[in-house]
Amino acid sequence: MSRRYIEGQEARITVNDKLFVDVEFYGGEKLEMLEPKRLFPTSGITRYITLLDLDGNEKAIIRNIDTLMPESKEAIESCLREHYLIPKLKRFVRRTEKFRIWMWTWETDNGEVSFEIINHIASLKLLYDGRVLIKDGNDNRYEIPNVYELDKRSFKMIMPDL
Q1: Minimal CA–CA distance to 137: which of 123, 156, 158?
Q2: What is the CB-side half-sphere exposure of residue 75 using CA atoms within 13 A?
Q3: What is the chain's alpha carbon radius of gyration, rounded to the nearest angstrom?
Q4: pLDDT tens-digit readout, 97-107
């Protein structure tokens, strides 16, 4: 079975229940209750989005959501935001250490949050575009959208660990 790719304006995509979308091709075919997921969740933010049915079978792939019609692009982005809800870290508040486990407190786009970093080498990842991905001791994920745009204090606290 060959893969089906959605590019450009060949289909209209609408949201169906926050995490799912419906795809209506201009030839008349309609696929319902598809869950968008990133094939490359850390590096492919807008590229290679797979659409899975309720059984987890791939029905189509969107190569690049930027080629979709604006309404279809927004539908995919809203589902992906809901699925990949990752708090954005904005400002460092404090860090304490006990038994080589760090307790970090950060201000996020959803309020203040505290979390544990057990292994700082494996838990922090600086990406090529300046983003920093952080995984805490409970496998929760956090993101700094651009480490170089942090205030001086926050930058100073995070950079020695990268």
Answers
A1: 123
A2: 23
A3: 19
A4: 888 888 999 99
State the sign of the Cα–Cα–Cα–Cα dihedral 150, 155, 157, 160.
positive
Structure tokens at 90: 């904005």
Q: Name, in order, each residue with C-beta under 8 angstroms of 62's C-beta and a sequence gap of 6 or more.
A: 5, 6, 7, 36, 48, 49, 51, 68, 76
Placement of tokens 């995490």 in the chain: 19
For the record, the structure tokens of 9 come out as 């304006």
The 3-state DSSP class for residue 131 equals: coil
- How are strands ordered across the β-sheet holding 101-108? 89-98, 101-108, 111-117
pLDDT digits (tens, 9 = 90+) for 120-133: 788 888 888 888 99
